[in-house]
Amino acid sequence: MNKATLVERVFRAFMESDGMARLMPAWVSRPFLPPGKRLGLPDYAYDAGERGYITERWIASTTPAENPIHTENEGLSFLATDPPILLKEAVELCPGMIMGEEYAKTHAGLGRLPKIFDNWDRLPFHIHQMQKDASKLGKKSKEESYYFPENVPLGPHPETFFGLHPYIVREKRYDLIAKCLEDWEHSDAFLAMSRAYVNVPGEGFHLPPGILHAPGSALTIELQEDSDVSAMFQGRLAHKLLDKSSLTRDVPPAELEAEGMMALVRQLDWEANGDPYFYENHHTPPVPVEGSKQPGGEEWWIFYNTPKYSGKKLVVKPGQSYFSKDNGVYNILVWDGEGTFGPFDVCGRSHDKDEIMVTHGAALRGVEVVNTGASDLSIIKFFGPGVNDDAPVLKKYP
């Protein structure tokens, strides 16, 4: 299909639906943990063979998944057209129409990646590289935030380890980290150097890059920068030993050869890992969006404390409507309930009715949201950088 024809199809897909378009779910496999099977797939569909298990769903994604076994377009979302169109291509071809002309001049793409991850065990202790380190390989850093949805089984380990004990940082015990990395077979000992925080449904955390973390088994809706860089500091988990390439894949080979495991230690944000007020500085309970309350519903900030992205939860009461206006381009995931979102019928956890892309123009005009069901209609909105400069910032402790 030539470029002109594809541009025409993209414009038609959005303009025929008031500047919005349905998206298809993007399923992503990971090789190291069993699935929680809370993504709404048939039981057999979680088995991805030699690629592992389907444990993630990426939402309105323009970011390809980086996995040991490459699969074409894994992690990328498609517009639900006939035939489907890659959202990544749509944004690249029609940036002004989708993101707004002014925003598109200063932003090379949507700049964020929403996802759901669904692991029935704790993820390995790992980091996402800071920009100073990711840049060395021509990649982007990965700041991220978590929201734990309500009324979902929490799994066997609903607590997340974050950072290091403050004394390790205060006394500059780099040797403890390097030694644990060298003893890859027993690197699960890392968790003894960290603190765990309970995954409370309806709440979440904000996590800048460079901080060690091992997310728990609670089903998690995540919003992050559009990147897939990482270093797995914990090699053994769930009775399985990971390949050590999962530790070193995003470290320049020359640095690894010259410094050994200290090259990984230097990728840590040392002070942030030892913050004695870690919980106070990173815990993100829902915050009411000022001026959002209407007779039919209300919005809460659930992803905030960073200029890199933001996100809201909209709840519309049964039998009620809500007029939703926003500052710029976003996408939604309908989590619970049923109703209409503009011209679309929507239904939570119904894979062909729960994901919509909203252009800049439609966001500014506003969307009528109607709850046609007997329970709350709950919708998560995801925004990229620079859209919501009014998002809250946590008070800094101490």
**Which sheet architecture does the biggest sheet show?**
9 strands, antiparallel
- The SS-based structural class is alpha+beta
Helix content: 10-25%
Low-confidence stretches: none
What oligomeric state best describes the polypeptide chains here? single chain
Rough outline: globular
Strand order of the largest sheet: 5-4-1-24-21-26-19-18-17
Q: C-alpha Rg, in Å?
A: 21 Å
Number of helices: 13
Strand content: 25-35%
Distance between the termini: 58 Å
Roughly what is the average pLDDT, rounded to an integer?
96
Total strands: the figure is 26
What does this structure look like?
The protein contains 13 helices and 26 strands. It has helices at 3-15, 87-93, 95-99, 101-106, 131-134, 166-170, 174-182, 245-248, 253-259, 262-265, 270-273, 278-282, 360-365; strands at residues 20-24, 26-30, 53-58, 78-79, 85-86, 113-117, 126-127, 144-147, 159-162, 195-198, 204-207, 213-214, 220-224, 231-232, 236-237, 240-241, 287-288, 297-303, 310-316, 321-324, 330-336, 338-341, 344-347, 355-358, 367-371, 377-383. With 398 residues, it is an alpha+beta fold. The termini are far apart. The mean pLDDT is 96.
